[in-house]
């Protein structure tokens, strides 16, 4: 396996950081564009243009979710190829679930190749909105903590970044996963503040990738 040049490593790190930044922007901006609030299938969706813009943002979100793993894979594979492949696979799965939610919302406001209204019944609209809510729970809510754990364990073991960063990832993943499991079984509502440690993990990792890059590991993996 050929070694990456320092220039290539810096470019890949910055590409991953840019993808992380794009995921934050698109995931936050898409929610209000759909109208109502997350996990409220009874809320009326926004207008056609707003929902279409939200859908485009979520398509970009899905692409950049995979992009983070694609950029990191060449940097991580020699330190733990199984973990690198696992992270890429789980990020791809997360993106696929997000796209299911996008496709669910599009029929609510539009038909392909026409500006005519979809004219779906209120019950159908509510059901599609509910499907989108479930994809939000399963993708970013359950699969994202899983892929963050895979990456955080690899970074903790190899010390490619300061250890407080994977520690944030492990703690944040456990908190978000636990909260969303409780939401799934109806024991609580979403508490956005509990996502703060996982958000801090991605910010810290992206900043490290953008400005310093990964350092030489203390424990090399075959």
From TrEMBL:
Keywords from the UniProt entry: Membrane, Transmembrane, Transmembrane helix
Transmembrane domains' residue ranges: 12-35, 55-76, 88-110, 134-155, 167-185
InterPro entries, per the entry: DUF4386
Source organism superkingdom: Bacteria
One of the Pfam families matching this protein, by short name: DUF4386
Protein name: DUF4386 domain-containing protein
């Amino acid at each position: 396996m050929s070694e990456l040049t320092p220039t290539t490593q810096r470019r890949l790190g910055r590409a991953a950081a840019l993808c992380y930044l794009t995921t934050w922007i698109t995931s936050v901006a898409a929610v209000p564009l759909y109208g109502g609030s997350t996990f409220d299938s009874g809320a009326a969706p926004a207008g056609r243009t707003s929902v279409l813009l939200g859908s485009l943002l979520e398509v970009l979100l899905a692409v950049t979710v995979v992009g983070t793993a694609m950029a990191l894979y060449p940097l991580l594979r020699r330190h733990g190829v199984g973990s690198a492949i696992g992270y890429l696979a789980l990020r791809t799965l997360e993106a696929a679930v997000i796209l299911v939610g996008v496709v669910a919302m599009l029929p609510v406001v539009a038909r392909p190749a026409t500006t005519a209204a979809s004219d779906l019944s209120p019950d159908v609209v509510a059901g599609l909105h509910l499907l989108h809510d479930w994809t939000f729970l399963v993708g970013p809510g359950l699969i994202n903590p899983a892929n963050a754990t895979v990456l955080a364990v690899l970074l903790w073991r190899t010390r490619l970044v300061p250890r407080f960063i994977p520690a944030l990832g492990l703690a944040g993943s456990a908190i978000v996963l636990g909260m969303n499991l409780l939401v799934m079984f109806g024991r609580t509502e979403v508490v956005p503040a509990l996502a703060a440690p996982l958000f801090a993990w991605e910010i810290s990792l992206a900043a490290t990738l953008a400005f310093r890059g990964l350092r030489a590991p203390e424990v090399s993996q075959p």
